[in-house]
Amino acid sequence: MSEAEEAEEPPAVEVRPTEGPWKVKANDRDFCNLPEFQKKVFLCFKKSKYAGNAIKTYKYNFFTFLPLNLFEQFKRAANIYFLVLLILQIIPQISTLPWYTTLVPLVIVLAITAIKDLVDDLARHRMDKEVNNRKCDVLLDGRFKESKWMDIHVGDVVRLKKNDFVPADIVLLSSSNPNSLCYVETAELDGETNLKFKMGLKVTDEHLQEEQQIANFDAMIECEEPNNRLDKFTGVMKWNNEAFPLDLDNMLLRGCKIRNTEVLHGLVIFAGADTKIMRNGGKTRFKRTKIDELMNYMVYSIFVLLILVSAGLAIGNTFWYDQIGSNAWYLYDGKQYNSSYRGFLSFWGYIIVLNTMVPISLYVSVEVIRLGQSKFINWDLQMYYPEKDTAAKARTTTLNEQLGQIEYIFSDKTGTLTQNIMAFKKCTISGHTYGRHRKRLSKIPVDLKWNKYADGRFQFYDHSLISCIQSKKNPDVHEFFKLLCLCHTVMVEQKEDINELVYQAASPDEGALVTAARNFGFVFLSRTQDTITVSELGVEKTYQMLALLDFNSDRKRMSVILRFPDGKIRLYCKGADTVVYERLHPSSKHKERTQSALEAFANETLRTLCLCYKDITEEEFDSWARKHKAASVSMSDREAALDEVYELIERNLQLIGATAIEDKLQDGVPDTIAKLAKANIKIWVLTGDKKETAENIGYSCQLLTGDMQIHYGEDVKNNTESSGRQVKIKEPFFAAQENNALIITGGWLNEILYEKKKKRRRLRLRKFKKKTIPKDGQPMDEREKEQRQIDFVDMACECSAVICCRVTPKQKANVVNLVKKYKKAVTLSIGDGANDVNMIKTADIGVGISGQEGMQAVMSSDYAFAQFRYLQRLLLVHGRWSYIRMCKFLRYFFYKNFAFTLVHFWYSFFSGYSSQIAYEDWFITLYNVCYSSLPVLLVGLLDQDVSDSLSIRFPKLYLPGPQGVMFNYKNFFISLFHGIFTSLIIFFIPYGAFRQTMGQDGEAPSDYQSFAVVTASSLTIIVNLQISLNTSYWTFVNFFAVLGSIAIYFGIMFDIHSAGIHVIFTSAFTFTGVASNTFRQPYLWLTIILTVGISLLPVICIEFLQKTIWPSEGDKIQRNRRKYEEQVEVVKKPEPFQRGRRSRRSAYAFSHSRGYADLIASGRSIRRKPTQRPIPEINQAENS
Hints:
Blueprint: H1 3-7, E1 22-25, E2 38-42, E3 45-48, H2 65-73, H3 77-90, H4 100-132, E4 135-140, E5 143-148, E6 157-161, E7 169-175, E8 181-185, H5 187-190, E9 196-199, H6 202-207, H7 211-215, E10 220-223, E11 234-239, E12 242-247, E13 251-252, E14 257-259, E15 263-270, H8 276-279, H9 290-323, H10 339-353, H11 361-379, E16 393-394, E17 408-411, E18 418-429, E19 432-434, H12 463-471, H13 475-486, E20 491-495, E21 500-504, H14 508-519, E22 522-527, E23 531-536, E24 539-549, E25 557-563, E26 569-575, H15 577-581, H16 591-603, E27 607-616, H17 618-632, H18 638-649, E28 654-665, H19 669-678, E29 682-686, H20 691-700, E30 708-712, H21 713-723, E31 739-745, H22 746-753, H23 758-768, H24 782-797, E32 801-805, H25 809-823, E33 827-831, H26 837-842, E34 845-849, H27 856-859, E35 863-865, H28 870-908, H29 921-931, H30 933-942, H31 948-953, H32 960-963, H33 969-994, H34 1008-1030, H35 1036-1056, H36 1059-1064, H37 1074-1078, H38 1082-1109, H39 1113-1119, H40 1121-1126, H41 1157-1162
Parallel strand pairs: 17-29, 17-33, 29-32, 30-31, 31-32, 33-34, 34-35
Antiparallel strand pairs: 1-10, 2-3, 4-5, 4-6, 6-15, 7-13, 7-15, 8-9, 8-14, 10-11, 11-12, 16-35, 18-19, 18-28, 20-21, 22-23, 23-24, 24-25, 25-26, 26-27, 27-28
Helix pairs in contact: 2-4, 3-4, 4-11, 9-10, 11-28, 11-30, 13-14, 17-18, 19-28, 24-25, 28-30, 28-33, 28-34, 29-35, 30-35, 33-34, 33-38, 34-35, 34-38
Binding site for Mg(2+): 412, 414, 832, 836
Membrane topology: Multi-pass membrane protein
Transmembrane segments: 100-119, 297-321, 341-366, 889-907, 972-994, 1006-1027, 1033-1052, 1059-1077, 1083-1105
């Protein structure tokens, strides 16, 4: 199967679509509201199936914001937990803490999150409003009137002008260009800046030029239902009792930009959500990080632990009351409750007392940290692109730590890895190579001032080629450039206002070759249906074009047959070396030297084309022309018939030389890919380009290297099919020793993953209702299909690099989804066009490239910046730091709250399991707000184990993130047991010290209030010093936070224990004078010091042993940080790869789609030549 067939299945020839046609009547809005086009929305309510043109990317409106946002927030287990807790605190019998201590923090958390979501959604509202309020001319009441995009309806006729965006999917009716030709730029759709042409039907071009004619237009369009296929459209227009076929060449898709066309008219077929660009957008998914999911499960675990502990203490209270409490007259509370009921109330009391195991401040702190990390990304000047004045932008604040856990990156090619700018770099003519780097070559570019047509931006450094051209001693050099300016399908347009010629090429490759010929003095000036006019070193010549043999992906070449001014006939051909060498005459010269040059070009990952010619006699041409004419009117398999005829004339060719074009990568792409690969991140390239182009870029950007074993989809297909039946045996697909890469096509994916023909297969199986193996190779059941998908993912994930070419936007998203589904891996997608939107939304992290082409990808992304190279800093610096900071924060936060809360547990054994709290009320209220929050918050915002430069220099430091080793259930239980140990020390050392103690004044400071103050003081000092031990990056702010938190604790404690505040609020402040009385006793100070020392000493010893005996990679680099920072990183130049693979020979520079041959041959694209053409200044412009 050819690549073109793999990319898309050509529609069958049909008069009307077979499945429920989509009907549109021109200039008739009421037609869309007929009962037959109504669909049920809810119960008996119906509305038209035709969407309006207003788009909606926002999530909320005025009425749905509150309920939907609360619903989303209460998906978080902790919020439900606190809501239940609030309800329990309202019940007087079991409430041990006031209800407002939970209500106020819960409302604050919900409000902060809601405000953040509201701000994000308002930005989406603004963008939608800006798009929906764009203006264009719509035909209303027989006249064109200015209207907003949102007011456009299906069936309207719109008038668009140069540089306008297309507001909906429209059928082109007519334009100001001859024969209703129109040029569009599709950067918003696919990121490509080269122009594409569209044509109106001949009948509409002839009859729909005037406003009154268009107002009387009443055709009926029947076409396919709205879908997401950007490369396919099938329909028919019925007008004046005739039917006219419509295809994609007649369609202008929403998001395209009108270029080089003054005015055009079009009929709206699909609007708003039905347009292909919106259909490719996919659903807006709510993304959550792995740490968020893990925190949810940990909250469940803590809740289970809380229930078990509370149940145990409630049982203890029941037995205690039976044996002791009921017999102690001084404990009588006046309530006639039995022991079981008291145990039941004690259970709920402990649920409230111990609730601080998961404090609500945790989620406030997490949101603050994420917001701060997002701001650091926005403020990073090293991710600012001055050429486009574009800074990096974190468009979400909830996914930062996920950037430190990426395992797979899925990247678009055009506009993401490459600039989509082609440059003529080298050539070989008659076995002599020009443009290669030689010591004697000047670094000064050649002077082209002698050529009035030269482009000042063109640079070439081999002066010997210019000398050869100007000397006219080597005819092969002239023949070489003559071929380049004659053998192509480039069209030229004259801008009369500035006397400039503009080249329109089907691909940037062709444009680069014609531009190179122009700069060397061989200038393509104009063409008609059967002539080409060029300027050869200032001499204008016109050649008669006898035949144009266009390129396709099977032929991999194109040819033109010309009659020279002197009457001789010559065929010029250019194509991939694999097909050209097969067709050379045995006597052709310089084959070996040209082959060596091609290998050298390939080693530099340049895109190559071989150039050759053949002189044809008049008799030979006449004989061939008759066969060509017969094939061109064949009604069955016309393309195959033409290919056979082309083969007859394209043989016994004479080799002239070869060209080498560079597809310019964005700056820093190879280095970025190399760094990410060292971080064990696998990169997949998903592109719509042809296989050879994608593979060539793979080598250019060092995604593919010379030591890799390249595997192709068609070669490994049998492996996946056979292994699909061996479910129990898990064997690797490739030899473990090899460094493998996989290159597959969209057509191969369809065969393996069964994305096509599903409906047809279901109908067939339903009809026969028996177990027969379908002839088209489709699986019999979902289980077999799933196994095939698993095999594909396993095979692809064994490879260091994967390239998927000729894939549709939907296939891109499906590939990402398969890796997420079966590998449970964290994925990142990066792209720049609307065809990447679905992929960006499907991945865990979506990154949009901004500042170069359209903004569709950016609007749907989570992060945006201007260049691919910034990805390494986003992941290796910001992502890694965010992950480490969040893990440290969570581990410490759980620890400090276990240490704080479990003191109540130990105290319960000495308080009759009565839900009595071990601390003062106000200490419980302020502990997580004032006494322990700031140091850990700063660690979550500012901590870094190594600098940003070392993080990028040593990508191996990134590995703990994808492995998830810094925060998991093991770390959670370590924090739990550390908290248990600390709470034991905090409770039992003061408890032992208070027994049989006598103070200096003869009084025993062993009362409950003094004990509460000593334990609270010990806890505050311990948790603040503990975070100091965990801090890697010290600043003045950290010192201030640690010492300030301790100082704040003592300051507030002395204030709330003062007599003055007790007089004002007698019932609220009951610890009057306790602090001053307690801290008068040196014995209690020693108790606090002993408690702190015993708590921290084991931690210090473990940290010392771990960093000394079992240091991590980060510890080693941190230890030698200064030495590494003084050293200059040496960038090793990659070795050139070997060419001995079939793919490298096919890295030819051609468009992956057909050229403009059909258009040229029809004569419809040719403008009327001016009577007197001024000397133009020619620029090859793809973007005017």
